[in-house]
Design goal:
- The chain is built from 14 helices and eleven strands.
- It is an alpha/beta fold.
- Strands 1, 2, 3, 4, 5, 6, 7, 8, 9, 10 and 11 form an eleven-stranded mixed β-sheet that branches.
- Strand 6 and strand 7 form a beta hairpin.
- The protein starts with a strand and ends with a helix.
């Protein structure tokens, strides 16, 4: 039995699949099996794998008809045999220390069932967005401020933003000190806590930089739900509901926005592009299912729900769904009556009667505002923002 089973779902990723597989093969921990589940690719993804890795005994290729990423992950789970379970998507890349560091933590803490680390989104040329630093340090506290919540306030005297979510911070112990010591990252800590309630704000970890204990998963008996995009959120929420969360402030995985040749990905990410609106709906359903169903009259949850309806209206307008946007904005006003920006957007949507004109006007304004904000926050350089805008324009032309 291998120590770690790595599950890799893929669909039409002939341009990136080798990078993902090689990142597993290059791990400093070599006691693993890799289950690649080809979810009915129509390109030569499966042929690339079979030709390149026919002699790799630790790699198992599973082929199935197209059923979606959840079904592919579930197929990998059922076929796995490792003591620990890890996940990687076919446009991702593990950093070499990932499996060694997280398995070392779980080996040294037999009472724990889940550990995660940072996911860095790579735009090429060493340009990154560092998840889940930016969410916990900036994005979610700003939403909390807007809806009047104190949940993400820092404890008195603290300046470490991760303590907005986690209850404790400690140095990396003997289990991981040697591993971290050979890496070029500073101020690496282990954060721990029960963070289920904080999931109302959105993702606090995702599957790619996360490792779970098989026995903990078997006790839950929960698989990835089919039919919606935020299935990894729901899967990890079941762990976080029952088990303490552990988070190491070091990148474990890169999510790439470009293929290895520097060109745009042949297949969009599951939660971007035209799927952004569907992703927003799925996240709103998560809030309803995990929190609002049990506490429908909680005023803070209702304001957060109203905020999500407002954000979903933005997605609807950007994709030309004017009527849906107006419906979301009406719901936003009911749940969060004091949200002036929802009123303003509703008025703009009513004034511009044609969905296509509203979409074009909105997207031009949003792209400019986003680029300027990202540059000011130093998330993107001016040249990176220009390249990203050019890629979006080319995609629209296609």
């Amino acid at each position: 039995m291998p120590l770690v089973s790595v599950i890799l779902p893929t669909y039409n990723r002939a341009d990136t699949i080798r990078r993902a597989i090689e990142s597993v093969r290059n791990q400093t921990l070599q006691d693993w099996e890799l289950l690649v589940v080809d979810d009915g690719s129509t390109d030569d993804t499966a042929d690339v794998i079979a030709a390149r890795y026919a002699g790799e005994p630790r790699l198992k290729l599973i082929r199935q008809e197209n059923q979606g990423v959840s079904a592919a992950r579930n197929a990998g789970l059922r076929a796995s045999s490792g003591k620990y379970l890890a996940f990687i998507d076919s446009d991702d890349e593990f950093l070499t220390h990932h499996l060694e560091l997280e398995s070392a933590f779980l080996e040294s803490h037999p009472e724990e069932n889940i550990v995660s680390s940072e996911l860095w989104e790579c735009f090429g040329r060493d340009s990154f967005i560092r998840h889940y630093q930016i969410e916990i340090w900036q994005w979610y506290p700003e939403v909390a401020r807007i809806i009047g919540s104190r949940m993400l306030d820092l404890p008195p005297g603290e300046t470490d933003n991760f303590l907005r979510v986690y209850q404790t911070r400690e140095p990396v112990g003997e289990w991981g000190r040697r591993i971290v010591g050979r890496l070029p990252y500073e101020n690496v800590y282990l954060y721990r806590g029960h963070i289920f309630e904080q999931l109302r704000w959105g993702y606090l970890m995702c599957t790619q930089p996360t490792m779970i204990r098989r026995s903990g998963w078997e006790k839950i008996g929960h698989e990835f739900e089919k039919g919606y995009l935020a299935e990894d959120f729901g899967f990890l929420a079941e762990f976080i509901r029952r088990y303490k969360a552990n988070y190491i402030s070091i990148p474990g995985c890169f999510k790439h926005e470009l293929a290895p040749n520097g060109r745009p990905l042949s297949e969009d990410h599951l939660a971007t592009g035209r799927r952004t609106y569907f992703m927003g709906e799925c996240m709103m359903r998560n809030l309803e299912r995990l929190f609002l169903t049990e506490r429908p009259d909680d005023p803070e949850l209702r304001r957060l729900y109203g905020w999500l309806q407002y954000r979903l209206a933005h997605c609807a307008i950007s994709q030309g769904h004017r009527d849906e946007a107006l419906s979301h904005l009406n719901n936003s006003r009911r749940n969060f009556p004091g949200l002036a920006r929802a009123m303003a957007l509703y008025s703009a949507a009513k004034i511009i009667p044609r969905a296509s004109l509203l979409q074009k006007t909105y997207n031009n304004c949003y792209s400019l505002n986003y680029a300027l904000g990202a540059i000011l926050r130093q998330e993107l350089s001016i040249s990176d923002a220009a390249r990203k805008a050019a890629r979006r324009l080319r995609a629209k032309e296609i």
